[in-house]
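PROTOCOL LOG
Step 1. Enter all chains and additional molecules of the complex.
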Amino acid sequence: MSTAESARLTGSFKAKQTLVKTSLLALASTFEIVSKKSPEMRAEIAEWESGLVFSVGVLPDGPAITMRKETDGLHYLGKGHQAPKLKLLFKNTDSALMALIGMIGAHTAFAQHRAIVHGSLFEAMQVNRSMAIVQKYLMPGLILKRITKRPPPMSGRDYLIKAQVMTGLGLAMTKNARK
Amino acid sequence: MVTMPDYYEFYCPVKIVSGKKALANLPYEMDQLGSKKAMVITDRGVVNAGLLKLVEESFQGWDGEIGALYDQTPPDSSDKVVNEIARTYREKECDCIVAVGGGSSIDTAKGVNIVVTEGTENLLAYQGAERLKNKTRPFIVIPTTAGTGSEATSAAVITNTDKGIKMSITSYQLIPDTAIIDPKMTQTMPPKITAATGMDALTHAVEAYYCLQKNPVSDAFSVGAIRLIVPYLVKAVQDGKAEQARMAMANGALLAGISFSNSLVGIVHTLAHATGGVAHVPHGVANSIFLPWGLEYNLEKSAADIAELAPFFGKAETGNARKDAEAVISAVREIREKLYELCGLPRTLKEAGVDEKKLEEIAGVAINDGTVAMNPEEVTKEDALNLLKKAYG
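Step 2. Run joint prediction.
Step 3. Record the structure below.
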């Protein structure tokens, strides 16, 4: 491989990793906002084990985020895998990108072996459902129609929460980027 | 048009040794794996049916031996049992594991293989997918039921007794090296268990054919399984000594196991796992009850895939996917009716003795089952409850 080709590939990989890192930060920040504002999300996480720590990341040692369930919602603990009980892991950067930017749904990522679970499948299903709720507020309706098994119904309140996510996300990401 | 996935993976390294007197090859197969001293894991039912004797007899003339025997495997595998057997394995310096039995003995053996390979007693650390990095010990399986397909799968479900949870462990390292399928080993199965385990195998094959991980290779195994199970299940229930029927069912279960190990099952298993956990309905019975309802539930999304199975269920193709898929569902119901007449295999949750008040709890457990993600149609708690009410009867 020529030096130029090698540099191009490295540049392309770094660009993808940056996009994955940003998408994961957006996911973490949306988790925090939605877990405080959405009754659907609150009902979902009410069933979870108290203090559950989970992470979403990329193998072998790519970007990752860690979240913890607390009484008032989900909290972003910071980047990397911070002693999580449950890990949702993408096998590579390309697979992570496909799922995080809405090219494929979470169920497709697992069905196509692009993502794996380390930990309890029971808890993975709970987290997977919460990710679907987050996606509902983060992704446009057209994408949701394509990547979900059944497009989530949107009420007036849901549109309001979506607007709050869109307006508050930038600030939340800026704050969380320091963690 | 046949569905082609964007991407798929398939893995099956099992050597299959199948047919009359296949069991006589056990010491040879051990020798091929470089092993001389087997840790045999089985249960009382196998011993009482005289099947362990057949295994012992197979060692005559060989220098291989049974180094240790555990014949108390309970119906649900547990970490305590696994660790106890693993200690015996080490003490007796065994060099391979031989599981003789149904799903529980085989899953227990898979757990033992993790413990002796990884040198740990903490199976919790291996929950999830693909966490085993070391090559496991030589592992031979001799199934005595024709249903679970565990002799060819990468999964084990083992109860953590302290936490009271079922741990699901999936790894390609858990797939047995060799499956020995001998008709003698399933001939003593009573009719009702033959029916329930046979419907379990049929459910594996059918769900693997239309759920989200379906792929051309698993499809081929599913079709192969259905072609054996549909014509021979009723015969095996009617006459347990019918060698050809027993062989067909054992091979059908094996093929279905290979299929669903690579194309995970969906809503039928979701509900069956939860009904087993909450109401203690045997897995094969629950699958038999839910199979037609699960197929109907997925008609909107998967009619075309289900329709392709019509000829293998003895139904003429009409070219109309919906009609052909419905013909498959009615064929499944016909098989269930025959099995009910022959041995009383329950067709409804009511017949299986489930308390109607438990349906809500079952639905709540169901939506956290890993198989729910692989079902083509979305499944909420309300959806699961509606299906349970239909299946209640």
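Step 4. Note key features.
Residues 137 and 163 of chain A are 8 Å apart (CA to CA).
The interface with chain B takes residues 87, 106-108, 110-114, 116-126, 128-129, 148-150 of chain A (CB under 8 Å).
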